[in-house]
Amino acid sequence: MKAAMLYEYDPAVNVNLKIEDVRVPEITAPDEVIVRVGAAGLCRTDLHIIEGVWKPTMDPNGTLLPYIMGHENAGWVEDVGSSVKSVKPGDAVICHPFRSCGVCLNCRHGEDMYCDNGAFPGLGMNGGFAEYFVTSERSLIKLKKGIMPIEVAPLADAGITAYRAAKRAARLLRPGSYCVLVGIGGLGHIALQSLHAISGCRIIAVDREPAAQKLAKDLGADFVLDGGPNVIEEVKEITGGGAHVVIDFVGELGVENICWKMARKGGQMFVVGYGGKIEVPTVHLVIEEINIGGSLVGNYTELVELMELNADGKVKMHYTEYNLANINTAIDDFKHRRFTGRGVIVP
Ligand SMILES: [Zn+2]
Ligand SMILES: [Zn+2]
User: Residue limits of the Enoyl reductase (ER) domain (predicted)?
Assistant: First the structure.
C-alpha cells in the first residue's frame, strides 16, 4: 500500500514525508480492526511531531523513525479480529484516536485519554497517512447512513478536542456570558459551532487571518477580532471587564500569555494548543481568582455526541482535500495557513 513515511525530525518542518510502498498491516490481536482509510486530517500535532517536540517523550533514543503519522482517521472496515462483534467489513467508521484498553480504572470512568495502557496510532506508531491502518474495535464509531468519511475524519481528533473544551466551557457559561476563542482554525471553528449548539453564551472569535475571520463570521461569531496589539482591551471593552472563559487553540508564539489576561475575575482559561510557556504572576491568580488548565483531546462518548451534532447539521467540518501523493504540499500550506478549516489527506 501507499504510505507517507516520516524519516527525520526538523525544527523548521522543511523535511518531506516520503511516499512509499509498504506492507499492508495485519491483524495481530483478536480485538483489532483494519480500516481502509477514507481520509485523515492533518493536525498541528503532526507538525509538532516533525519539529521534534514529541521526541523527548516518544523517541528518547532516536530509534522510532520511520513511521506513518495520521491520527484523525475515518474510513471503512476492511478486516476484523476474531473477537470483534460490533463492526464488520464494509462498515463506514470514524476512529477515536486513542486505543484505550477498556479495563483500567480510568477507562471504566470513561476517560479514554487517561488510559493506563493506551496506544495512539499516528503518534509513535503507524497511523492513517496510508491506505490502511490498524486500530481496535473499542475505538470505532459507525457513521450514520449518508455520511462520508472525508466529511468527518478530522472530527476524530480536532473535532473532539474542540468539543470537549467547548463542553467544559459551556458548564461555566450562562446566556449573556462571553467566551473568547483564540485561533479559528481546524479546532476553533468546531468549538464555535459546538458552543452555539450547547450554550447560550456570546462568542468572541480572535484570529489574525482574514479568511479565518470570515469563517468565524459565517459561522455566527458574535464578535470577530483581528488579534492586534489592543486585543486584550478590546475584549475587556466588549465584555465589560473580561471574558468568563477563554479557550486558547494556539498555545504558543506568545498567544498563551495574552489569553489569560482576557479573563475576568473568576474566569477560566482552557489551554488546547501547545508548544509555548505560560507565565502568570501568582498574585494575579489570587487577586483575579482566574483558573488556567489544559484540555486533552476527548473521550469516546464525547466523540459520539459530536457525531450526533454533526448528523443534525449543527457542527460541520470545513476542509480542503489533498491526495496522499501531495501531502508535503498540504503540510506546507498548513504551515503558511493557506487554507481555512482542516486539511484532509485522501489516499
Ligand atoms: Zn490531531
Ligand atoms: Zn484503559
Answer: 12-345
DSSP state of 40: E
Percentage above 90 pLDDT, the chain? 96
The ligand whose atoms approach the alpha carbon of 159 most closely is 1
Report CA(21)–ligand 2 centroid distance (Å): 33
Average pLDDT over residues 305-317: 97
Distance (angstroms) between ligand 2 centre and the Cα of 221 equals 38
- Digit-coded pLDDT (tens) for 163-194: 999 999 999 999 999 999 999 999 999 999 99
Answer yes or no: do 266 and 341 share one domain: no
119 and 203 share a domain?
A: no
- What is the total residue count of the chain? 347
Note whether 147 and 170 are same-domain residues: no
Label residue 13 by pLDDT band (50, 70, 90): confident
Asked whether the predicted pLDDT for residue 125 surpasses 90, the reply is yes
The ligand placed nearest to the CA atom of residue 41 is: 1
* 280 and 304 assigned to the same domain: no
In this structure, what CATH number is given to the domain that contains residue 253? 3.40.50.720
**Do 12 and 144 sit in the same domain of this protein?**
yes
Query: Which of the 8 DSSP states describes residue 24?
Result: P
- The C-alpha atoms of residue 170 and residue 168 are separated, in whole angstroms, by 5
Q: How remote is the CA of residue 47 from the centroid of ligand 1, in Å?
A: 10
- The residue range of the domain holding 21 is 2-157+298-346
Instruction: Mark whether 172 and 110 lie in a shared domain.
Output: no
Among 264, 279, 294, which residue terminates a domain?
294
Q: Using only C-alpha atoms, what is the Rg of the chain?
A: 20
Give distance in angstroms: CA of 283 to centre of ligand 1.
35
> Which ligand has the minimum distance to the alpha carbon of residue 136?
2
Counted domains in the chain: 2
